[in-house]
Amino acid sequence: MNKLIVSMALVGSLAGCGQKEKDPGPALPAPVPVPAASIVGTWTGTSTRTQVDYAGSTPDTDVTTQTPAGFKLTFGPAGKLTSEMPPNILSPSGIQIGTYQFTNNVLITTYASGSLTHAVEALTSRRLVFKNVESDASSTITKTYTFSR
To answer: Domain of life, per the record (predicted)?
Structure first.
């Protein structure tokens, strides 16, 4: 008889556990939104793809090359742009200072030699890809630049 009473008490206590409402505890904070990737920062060049579409019968070309070691772009938060590359005829020191504007996936870079407009094809926290197109009467040249950080 004692076993029956203990068994009934145990079943009753287990059944009561399933009927209690769970305390949800304190409310969790809302998730923090992940900020969109930013162009601001230093990017290291990895490759350049040059496509030349010639008018007329000349065969087109499509060449991808590795970007020279040391080619970097630094986009500052206030529109300042610094380009670092191995010294060359255009920049004996290897450093050019310019400005940039970036709006709606359009990047405009300006140096003393002039401005270029680029279409940004990819921008993540680790990858930047942009291209620019230049045309004249004999050809259209499309350059696609890929950077990482």
So the answer is: Bacteria
pTM: 0.69
Token pair 């680790």: residue:
126
Q: How many Å apart are CA 2 and CA 89, to the nearest integer?
A: 101
How many domains is the chain partitioned into structurally? 1
How would residue 125 be classed by pLDDT, with cut points 50, 70 and 90? very high
Please give the distance of CA 90 from its chain centroid, rounded to a whole number.
Answer: 28
Q: Is residue 7 part of a domain?
A: no
SS3 label, residue 4: helix
Q: What's the CA angle centered on 112, arms 111 and 118, to 5 degrees?
A: 30
**CATH label of the domain that carries residue 138:** 2.40.128.20
Residue type present at position 76: G
Q: Residues 78, 115, 90, 47: what is their CA dihedral angle, to the nearest 10 degrees? A: 80
pLDDT for residue 54 is more than 60: yes
